[in-house]
Amino acid sequence: MPRSTWTAGRRGALLGASAAVVCATLTACGDTGDGGYVAVGPPRPSTTAVRPTGSVTLVPLDSPKSPAASGTSGTATTPAPASTPMASSPTGAKSGRSSTRSPSPTPTAAPTTAPVTPVTPVTPAALTWGAPAHKATDHRWCEDVTLSFRNSGGTAVRSGTVTFGTHIIGALGIDWATIGSAEPLPVPVAAHAREDHTWTVCVDAWRVPLGMHIETRDVSVVWK
Question: Domains in the chain and their CATH numbers?
């Protein structure tokens, strides 16, 4: 009697199925019928379980290797994305703002036009004067004489002489004599300027007896 071997687990099932296929093939080969074919189907289950009479050898199935033992994992590991280094702030930056500032626009000075000063043509000095104003003093042979000068020219008067003609008037209003005297012109008289000047004009005391007085009526001026 052949020796029966009982194989437990999934490997025993695979061996049994293989034996059934072999038996079906052998049966087909031994049959000499007309067609030469034998229907092959799954073996019918036995209605009576037969226990093996020989010794039974148990062969353990190979257990699947664990991920820890093989060093690999059944799930593909996606590499973590490389970390992006944080942008460092520039030196001197404050509150997230860059220390470099855009240059301020330089203001453009508005063109200025210098005022045009009218040029006065240079003209020679032109001196004029008015009638003398005279005023009596404490002495009847002296009086204060005032003259007003005006230079209408474009050049100042630098020098000159004023000549007075003083009249001696008697008690009845008779003009007895005219006495001349000269005085320096007060200079300079600036261009387009007006000046007043007063002189004390006197004659000899003996020329004016008691009851008489003097009046300076004539004036002439030499200037340059």
Answer: 1-59 (no CATH), 127-223 (2.60.40)
